[in-house]
Amino acid sequence: MNNATASITPSRATIDPKEAAHFGALAAEWWDPKGSSAMLHKLNPVRLGFIREAIDGHFGSDSRGLKPLAGKRALDAGCGAGLLCEPLARMGAAVTGVDAAPENAAAARAHAEAGGLSIDYRAGELGSLGLGGFDLVCSLEVIEHVTDKAAFIGHLSAAMADDGLMILSCPNRTARSRVLLVEAAERLGHVPRGTHEWSQFVTPEELHDLAAGAGLDLGTPRGIAWSPLKGLHLSDDLALNFIATARRK
């Protein structure tokens, strides 16, 4: 265990019990593309496109190869029931998924086993698990749900190898995201009520500062936007949601 991980005290815990209970209650539906996590199923291919490009750029892998993460370790922090962990495992990584809700870890483990995938799932505080040395660290749509954002980014940084790659995504705190991602999405049933607290969304500038505080350089964010013609897609428009890489300074 490195010093950054060992020095975390209970006051620096990041799990919000209410958030963990909310998402744990949805565990049984997580893999249903028409269920409560339908929006994540639509979002996942867009995120994976960004992730694959970032992996190839950082590790120098062949963009046509099927196993760009062969021989590498990957962590997904806030993994839910494994929507990202499974594609990372298929890319060849030895994957660890960590979630605040034991119900999610159990659902993820069962789904991976049914698909013949070996993924190490854990439940609990990332900073207390003693994990480290990951070549790839991902945390997507998670930072807006934790109680201490600086501590959480610090935990992610402590888990990443010195030459590793981190990928973060979150909703942006804008007027448009409040209307579309919170009020409209929850009212229309696209996401379960109570999923988002708009005031906890993070702007790109705030994420840049949080990353810097953990000794990381945040890359140029890409927006995840929506349009009637394209649906969800990568964009220069950061108003709703954005995704970015981070590396050690």
From TrEMBL:
Keyword presence, Protease: no
Name under which the protein is recorded: Bifunctional 3-demethylubiquinol 3-O-methyltransferase/2-polyprenyl-6-hydroxyphenol methylase
Cited NCBIfam families: UbiG (TIGR01983)
Organism of derivation: Novosphingobium guangzhouense
S-adenosyl-L-methionine recorded as keyword: yes
Keyword terms: Methyltransferase, S-adenosyl-L-methionine, Transferase, Ubiquinone biosynthesis
One BP annotation, GO: methylation
One annotated GO molecular function: 3-demethylubiquinol 3-O-methyltransferase activity
Pfam families per the UniProt record, alphabetical: Methyltransf_23
